[in-house]
Design goal:
Blueprint: H1 3-11, H2 18-37, H3 40-57, H4 67-85, H5 122-137, H6 141-152, H7 157-164, H8 168-188
Helix pairs in contact: 2-3, 2-4, 3-4, 6-8, 7-8
Length: 197
């Protein structure tokens, strides 16, 4: 069943289908919140809050083919609220991949996608993943938002502007600034990032 069909049936009163919809996207939203917060506990809280808001405001959803973007927009706003309530969290030493069963290939990234060497050992992969998460946490959250949506989720800049509710020019500026900062962090660590040409 397509997302819009599930949503319509839920809006018509079949609330039991909400569990099916939530299960479909739970891992992706947890991963997104983890990359945003850098902390497993905060990611769990933000994920729960995201689906709470989804259930509460699902009647407001009217688009046909952009449900995932709509859900990510909710998660983004929940994470923004999290930043307002709490100081930046310490990066967790646990990888979000440990919590992801059955994630889609379109959002599955490994250390190989982000930095050299081309055939890292398991220890190097863990170290690189931690480096990536640590580097993301050093960015202002507005830059981190666009970096995650662009590189991890593959959204185009115009789509990111819609999700984040900012002008396209702002997305381009944040993406350029965030990418530059990440390149600088990776360069200082002696790693060549995937953002370098």
């Amino acid at each position: 069943m397509q997302d819009y069909e599930l949503v319509n049936r839920i809006k018509q009163g079949d609330r039991a289908l909400f569990g099916q919809l939530a299960e479909k996207y739970y891992d992706e939203i947890f991963r997104y919140c983890y990359y945003q917060t850098g902390n497993e506990h905060s990611a769990y809280d933000c994920t729960q809050e995201t689906f709470f808001h989804l259930l509460r405001f699902l009647d407001n959803y009217t688009e046909r083919n952009h449900f995932k973007a709509y859900l990510l927009r909710i998660a983004l706003n929940v994470c923004r609220d999290h930043y307002r309530k709490y100081e930046r969290q310490t990066v967790s030493w646990d990888s979000p991949e440990n919590h992801m069963e059955g994630k889609s290939a379109s959002t599955q990234y490994s250390a190989n996608d982000w930095a050299a060497p081309s055939h890292p050992s398991p220890e190097q992969q863990v170290e690189t993943k931690l480096m990536i998460q640590s580097a993301l946490q050093k960015l202002p959250h507005v830059q981190r938002e666009v970096i995650i949506l662009y590189y991890y989720y593959g959204y185009k800049q115009r789509e990111i502007a819609h999700i984040t509710d900012v002008p396209l020019s702002t997305v381009k500026t944040r993406l350029r600034a965030g990418t530059g900062k990440l390149q600088e962090i990776f360069h200082q660590a002696g790693l060549r990032s995937a953002w370098e040409s």
